[in-house]
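#onboarding

Welcome to the new folks! Below is a worked example of what a typical request in this channel looks like: someone posts a single protein sequence, and someone else replies with the predicted structure as tokens. Don't worry about understanding the tokens yet, we'll cover that in week two.

Example request:
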Amino acid sequence: MSVACTKTQVSPIASPAPADTQVASGAVLLEQRCSACHSLARVESAKKDRSEWERTVVRMVNKGAQLNKEEQEILIVYLTENYGR
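Example response:
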């Protein structure tokens, strides 16, 4: 099933430096950007390695998720560390 999401303007999250800030930012990105189109349960039930999360994030950006390159990397790291295999 294909889910289309309309693009909405969102403010970028401040650039994190420390790893703990990056984890917090990853959680915030997941909550704010990903749950705009689907439930977090869908993400939480997935177990993917880094390359699979990269493909997923790129696919979601192509469908309208508002994430710049830095935010994409933060989210990929967060997803891999928390929902990886």
